[in-house]
Amino acid sequence: MATAYLGRPCCNFQFMDVEVLVDPRDGLEKAVLGNFASGGVGTIIFVDPRTGAEESLDLPGDNGPEGLLNLDNRRLLVACSETYGYLHSLDLTTRTWAEPLRVESETYIWNLCRASDGLVYGGTYPGCKLLRYDPERHVLEDLGHVSDDPGNMYSRNVYDAAVGYVLLDCGMVTSEVIAYDVATGERCHVGPPGAQVREVTADYVCLTTGSGVEFYAPGTWEPLPDLSDRLSPPLEEPFSRTGHVAWLSDGGLVGVRGQDLAYRPAGESSVRLIPLDAPRPATRIHELVQDDRGVLWGASAFGQTIFSHDPATGETWNSGAVCDNPGEVYGMVWVDERLFLSSYCQGDHVVYDPSLPWDQVNNLNPRTLESVAPALIRPLGCSVLGPDGGVWTGWGAAYGVYGGGLSRVDPVTLQVRSWYDPVPGQAIGHLATDDRYLYLATASFASGLPPLQEPLHFAVWDPAGQVVDDVTLSEGEHPGSLAAVGGKVLLLRLDRPEIRVYDPQALYFEDSIPLPEPCSSLIALDPGRALAFSATRRFLVTMPGGTVEDIGDMPGNASAVALGREGELYVAVGADLYRVE
User: Fold this and answer.
1) Rg (CA), the chain
2) What three-state secondary structure class fits 241?
3) Which of 9, 203, 279, 366 is the one with CA 20 to 30 A from 91?
4) Which of 247, 275, 303 corresponds to the end of one domain?
5) β-strand 253-257 against 245-247: which pairing, if any?
6) Cα angle vertex 473, ends 469, 478, to 5°?
7) What is the torsion angle, in degrees rounded to the nearest 10, for the CA atoms of residue 492, residue 498, residue 502 and residue 508?
């Protein structure tokens, strides 16, 4: 069977930080945007917000910046994720990069701060470490796991909080704020268990706690009286929607809103959104669906954007951010020529009508519906059109919590309903549906926590709002994709080359179908057949009987798959898109 390469249609920015510096090349004050390219190599973009002039530089490696730090307008430090956790150093005059540095166990450096000793500190994932960088010697030092809880994987973020100290937020098993003495390496806790840093100034450290806010004296960490009247006032839209903001020397403000630079000049109240001329890099395709006209629609793996690609003409379009919150779209379902989306990281439901003008800024099109956050944030199970006509989504719980849930969007009224923990303490990893029920498989994944160490579940859900059957899977069994085919439900096992067959009438697993090799995904092809995929081959599974036929190769390990109207297959391998006839 022929395989055709269709290009790299998914292109977008995902800005993770903004820094302000005076460019030694021309003496102009500029904003620097750190752009993460999922599946690719990140960039930094210099922008003069007053003129719109731009300059873009590729990083020497890694997917992109998590944090930026200006060192005296001479060097720019870039803390990276998510493959290598590099620390990069750019000479601002020559625009040359120093040799990348890293600690091999860590894949993220979240942010950077310069402490009173002149050295630079950063926190990491997954080791919850504190790193120390000497900019004069260009040496990166691993100071070790910094939390008292060995289960904590995050030291995010770090702050220059007082002479002789840096302050760290650690989590996600337990939340704790730790003050680190840069001279002695001694640590002490600041505030009660569960606290997190809200604001750090020369006069106070403000922590959020379960009961509100508390204030502490920098350096001594003694409690202070309530200083809430001195907290920085909240920023207005759009700056209130992002942590990526920076002040200019004249009092102007810069930040990011989706794919644009947001700029509020000094003394003005209005905000200008400045589209960037720098090319959006090709990024990994996260989801794929096809509409009734044969046009493919997909989502970026990070950046909260979607795209369309017409295989007949090659025409491609990339969107702005589909909602105000950062993250990415997981679920895509067409209903009545509208695209229903579900996205991480704030449990958003979004509906988009391609026939109407794009106006996300005013929440008109695409339109953000009711969220399921803070209890549910990540739509791991993606979205399906249920037997009741609703758009159903499977969710994982908030950071630091094992759990999950289901949501339903009514495509007519746009009402959102949700159910928390239909399988107690487990995220919903996969969904499928037939003409009666929804079928779900749970996942060991949990945001900010180690994988769940207990048997996972397969469950049957009645759209009326109840569990019909709940099967505890065997220890070590990892369920993958589900497909309702031939009156049965097929459950792909990820831990062995096998498909389990569930009878929804009798409510039990009746059989297993061996596969020639381990597969990573499964989709329904038609009422009697399914396709299973490995990194190199695709297999046709025919029901009843469970016969398996090797029908050809795959262009690579698929990050997303969509079945076309004519039986063709569209396969995304990272940022690359293929059609398999």
Assistant:
1) 25
2) helix
3) 279
4) 275
5) antiparallel
6) 125
7) -120
- 48, 82, 51, 52: which is closest to 64 by C-alpha? 82
Instruction: Tell me, yes or no, whether 496 lies in a domain.
Output: yes
- Domain count for the chain, please give it: 2
- 247: which 2 tokens? 């002040």
Q: Yes or no: say if 178 and 187 are a contact pair by the CB < 8 Å rule.
A: yes
**Side chain identity at 459, as an amino acid letter?**
A
**What is the rounded (10 degree) CA torsion for 466, 468, 474, 480?**
-70
* Tens of each residue's pLDDT in the chain, 581 residues: 589 999 999 999 999 999 999 999 999 999 999 999 999 999 999 999 999 999 999 999 999 999 999 999 999 999 999 999 999 999 999 999 999 999 999 999 999 999 999 999 999 999 999 999 999 999 999 999 999 999 999 999 999 999 999 999 999 999 999 999 999 999 999 999 999 999 999 999 999 998 899 999 999 999 999 999 999 988 877 777 666 899 999 999 999 998 999 999 999 988 899 999 999 999 999 999 999 999 999 999 999 999 999 999 999 999 999 999 989 999 999 999 999 999 999 999 999 999 999 999 899 999 999 999 999 999 999 999 999 999 999 999 999 999 999 999 999 999 999 999 999 999 999 999 999 999 999 999 999 999 999 999 999 999 999 999 999 999 999 999 999 999 999 999 999 999 999 999 999 999 999 999 999 999 999 999 999 999 999 999 999 999 999 999 999 999 999 999 888 999 999 999 999 98
Beta bridge partners of 170: 155, 176
Q: What is the CATH number of the domain that holds 511?
A: 2.120.10.30
State whether the Cα torsion 398-244-41-9 is positive or negative: positive
Residue 576 domain-assigned (yes or no): yes
In one letter, which amino acid is 420?
Answer: Y
Contact call for residues 125 and 136 (beta carbons, < 8 A): no
Q: Which long-range contacts (CB under 8 A, 24 or more apart) does 315-321 make?
A: 316/7, 316/9, 318/9, 318/10, 318/11, 318/12, 318/280, 319/358, 320/258, 320/259, 320/260, 320/358, 320/360, 321/257, 321/258, 321/259, 321/360
| Inter-residue contact 38 to 14 (CB < 8 Å) | yes
How would DSSP label each residue in 171-184? ESSS-EEEEEETTT
Question: Does residue 466 belong to any structural domain of this protein?
Answer: no
User: Which residue type is seen at 288?
Assistant: L
Of the candidates 249, 275, 301, which is a domain's last residue? 275
What is the domain extent for residue 194? 13-200+236-275
